[in-house]
Amino acid sequence: MTDETVRLGRDFGWLWAAFATSSAGTWLAFDAFPLIAIKVLDAGPARVSALAAAGLAAGTVLALPLGPWVEGRRKRPVMIAMDLVRCAALLSVPAAYALGVLTFAQLLAVSMVVAAADIAFTAASGACLKALVPRAGLLTASSRFEATTWTTTALGPPLGGLAIGALGPVATVLANAASFLLSALGIRAIRGDEPRPARAASRPRARDLADGWRFIWADPTLRALFLNGVLVNGLIMAVAPPLAVLMLGDLGFAPWQYGLAFALPCLGGLAGARVARPLAARFGRHRVMLATGTVRTLWPVGLALVGPGAAGLALVMGVELALITCMGIFTPLLAAARLERTPQDRVARTMAAWSVTSKASIAAMTALWGVFGAVLGTRAAIALAGVLLIATPLLLPRREAPEPLPEPAPEPSAA
């Protein structure tokens, strides 16, 4: 059975619908917390930066024991619980706003809880996807998730801005909370039996916390993809604050122009996700991953040359379109390879370790590039990240890895 002909089934359809709903809510509420901090709580730049960095960093610390904890439990109840936790935490914001008791500390606490729940949900959803979809369908499933991500990324922030303008600063937070509730209902609708976890739930030990990283490091292919992904994602995200200062401050672009410069190129991610599977079928997965993983790093250095006016806006959109299109092809291939090479009883720990490291590196590099921007200047900081990105393909696996051994069939759950 080939990846082109495999049917993913009704249960995957519910999982996909749940993901699409929560992704739409997340991107609709993009930058809602900084906006509330500025408009409602009169927070300055330092507190807004702290809200973004501290919430992400603290969330990753809280999520450290969640990988082993998730591994020993059935994954769909964990996913439903994390959706409900995120829904409840987010609902506290409009409730406090309506009562006039909203504080910066509450925003920070909610951001921590949501970040930790995000990591736990991601760990459980990877294991759930692998259990629901046959091996031959993992690339197709990953491509559909990737296409959904880029679609909601392109449409969510502009629509969220309109909603905030019409309905107030907490409108999109309320919509995001509702999206997690709908996601929980979608996951609840999955009817297939869930395999019994290979290891029983137990109190996490110190050794368990590092087990995901040990497994990644022991597999040469996963290790190379992991190191490459952590550096690439961190460097790309680290450029965002200096670039925002350059475009919105020094060059005088309007906020709608800035948003448009990053929203429209997301359609390239949608296109890339749709062609990832045909390209892999024609040229081979490894060759396509190596090519797109290399080409995506060549563009961001050009952001240091952005100037004012239409030409500058066109330059940013062109660079982002090329970058995001390559990412749209590369990411589902990476996601499929990661699931294929990870045994079912290690997926949650491995996904948690991967997600924790990625988020922590983004937080650290974002803070570091803020210092570089202040010391070297915004253009120099952007150029430095672009030059370092060009070197990251050296970490990609140079040879196609052998196929992992087939896994034993999971033990079915009791009726």
Describe the protein.
By secondary structure, the chain is an all-alpha fold. 75% of the residues lie in helices and 0% in strands. It is built from 18 helices and no strands. Helix 14 packs antiparallel against helix 15. The longest helix has 33 residues. It is globular.
What's a quick, concise take on this entry?
The protein is mostly helical and 415 residues long. The protein has helices spanning 9-28, 32-39, 45-63, 66-71, 75-99, 104-132, 138-167, 171-188, 206-209, 211-218, 220-238, 240-250, 255-263, 266-283, 285-295, 309-341, 347-376, 378-391. Helix content is 75%, strand content 0%.
How does the helix and strand content classify structurally? mainly alpha
Largest sheet: none
N-to-C series of helices and strands:
HHHHHHHHHHHHHHHHHH
Shape: globular
Low-pLDDT regions: 1-5, 408-415
Radius of gyration: 21 Å
Helix content: over 70%
Q: Give the strand tally.
A: 0
Mean pLDDT: 83
Quaternary structure classification? single chain
Kindly report how far apart the N and C termini lie. 29 Å
Total DSSP helices: 18
